[in-house]
Design goal:
By secondary structure, this protein is of the alpha+beta class. It has two domains: 154 residues, PurM-like, N-terminal domain (60s Ribosomal Protein L30, Chain: A, 2-Layer Sandwich); 171 residues, Phosphoribosyl-aminoimidazole Synthetase, Chain A, domain 2. It has eleven helices and ten strands. The strands form two sheets. It has a six-stranded mixed beta sheet with strand order 6-8-5-9-7-10. A four-stranded mixed beta sheet has the order 1-4-2-3, covered by helices on one side. Helix 1 runs parallel beside helix 4 and helix 3 packs parallel to helix 4. The longest helix has 17 residues. The chain starts with 12 loop residues before the first helix and ends in a 9-residue tail after the last strand.
């Protein structure tokens, strides 16, 4: 009987070392002055600068990028999910007014491939550098028998800080406030199970085929980067122009806006205020998806909603050249929905 070793069981420690060699300079490139540790320690060390915050509150969030990973793998664009992961996580703590500080990633693969793992981490490091976040550490796991073939998963945790007096939790939202929409850059990281069913099964397209109504490929359309709203929103937070923020992810407008509304208030959304971006219109037509389902599953072009007072609305609208007034905050009778859609969707004009 031949003796067993780890490699024959499916785990290649040599490949793991090659991954570490590839990602070490990437991690070191995404740092901040508060970082006290180097890659390879059991834990990452980060010294919080208490002089900048009177009553610092740490804000943390963990997320993944869903089945967008499947598209990235088939297209061979492995940097995409890493970048999107960081953007998504930043947005999720930004809505509470937090400045992102550091990020940790988890990457798991059935059979570890150093090139793929390094490219995923390269996307993570790129976003961390771009938005001033330290890539403090992470975990790379080889899991034979769990993930088939070259499948992989990636998730991340972000930690940020906000002064307790400046936490954005929607408690200051009032009837008469204005809801301003900041545009998305595409599907972001939600709705991909439906999108893949439409594109790959219903329409029979591959990742390198032209996307309907687009000058690019299916991969170009579906892997458009998840927009990070930190550059647009941070100055508005500093100016005190924000009363509520909602990152429009899974569940769309009606699933996310209620999370920042005080009891007794609703947001009236004017559906005729914007046109459906081409990628969503192609999915709607290709899958015969109803308007209600589109709004429930996808962001439909609205990536972030800012609730602000009427006097500050012009300042908020000026934060993005493509921002628009989505609607307003209104009183909500008992039993009424927290998001009230009015008008006919603008994308139905001309039907």
């Amino acid at each position: 009987m031949e003796p067993l070793d780890y490699r024959s069981a499916g785990v290649d420690l040599g490949e793991a070392d090659r991954v570490l060699d590839g990602i070490r300079p990437l991690v070191r490139s995404a740092t901040r002055s508060e970082v006290l540790s180097d890659i390879g320690h059991f834990g990452g060390l980060f010294q919080l600068d208490l002089s900048r915050h009177a009553r610092p509150v740490l804000v943390a969030s963990t997320d993944g990028v869903g089945t967008k990973l499947r598209v990235a793998r088939e297209a061979g664009r492995h940097e995409a999910p890493g970048y999107d992961l960081v953007s998504h996580c930043i947005n999720d703590i930004l809505v509470q007014g937090a400045e992102p500080l550091f990020f940790l990633d988890y990457f798991a693969m059935g059979r570890l491939e150093a090139e793929v793992a390094t490219r995923v981490v390269a996307g993570i490091a790129e976003a961390c550098r771009e938005f001033g976040v330290a890539l403090l550490g992470g975990e790379t796991a080889e899991m034979p028998g769990f993930y088939p073939g070259g499948d992989y998963d990636v998730a991340g945790t972000i930690v940020g800080v906000v002064d307790r007096d400046r936490i954005v939790d929607g408690s200051e939202v009032r009837a008469g406030d204005v809801a301003v929409a900041l545009p998305s850059s595409g599907l972001h990281t939600n709705g991909f199970s439906l999108a893949r069913a439409i594109v790959f099964e219903r329409l029979g397209l591959g990742v390198h085929d032209p996307f309907p109504g687009s000058v690019g490929t299916v991969a170009d359309a579906l892997l458009a980067r998840h927009r990070c709203y930190l550059p647009a929103v941070a100055p508005l937070l500093e100016a005190g122009a924000v009363r509520g923020l909602s990152h429009i992810t899974g569940g769309g407008l009606e699933g996310n806006l209620p999370r920042i509304l005080p009891p007794g208030l609703a947001v009236r959304v004017d559906l005729d205020g914007w046109m459906l971006p081409p990628v969503f219109d192609a999915l709607r037509r290709g899958g015969g998806v109803s308007d209600a389902e589109m709004l429930r599953v996808f962001n439909c072009g609205v990536g972030m909603v800012i609730l602000t007072s009427a006097p500050d609305a012009d300042r908020v609208l000026a934060s993005d050249p493509d921002a628009w007034t989505l609607g307003e905050v209104v009183s909500r009778p008992e039993g009424a929905p927290a998001v009230r859609f009015t008008g006919a969707p603008g994308w139905n004009r001309g039907r």
